[in-house]
Amino acid sequence: MEMLGKVRRMHLRDKLSLHEISKRTGLSRNTLRKWLRKSEAEVVAPPRYQRDDSPHKLTPYHPSLPHR
């Protein structure tokens, strides 16, 4: 969330290009473009990775496996 604020500040207040912000932060220009397209309402929550809850190969055998 902190980095998101810095990026928005560099772009809006300091008028830096995406290329310059990318060089300074180490983030890709695609990520910067995506972050800057979001409105203020969408920026409230930090971006998070969400994994799908899919069954694993051993899921059917969990009841019979010993637990540590």
Biggest beta-sheet profile: none
Instruction: Return residue spans where pLDDT drops below 50 for at least 5 consecutive residues.
Output: none
The percentage helix is 40-55%
Distance between the termini: 37 Å
The count of β-strands is: 0
Counting helices, strands and paired strands, the structural category is mainly alpha
Structure annotation, total helices: 3
Question: How do you describe this structure in short?
Answer:
This protein is mainly α and 68 residues long. The chain contains three helices and no strands.
Q: How does this model look, in words?
A:
This protein has 3 helices and no strands. It is mainly α and 68 residues long. It is elongated, with a radius of gyration of 20 Å. The protein has a domain at 1-45. The model has no long low-confidence stretch (mean pLDDT 85). Helices cover 41% and strands 0% of the residues.
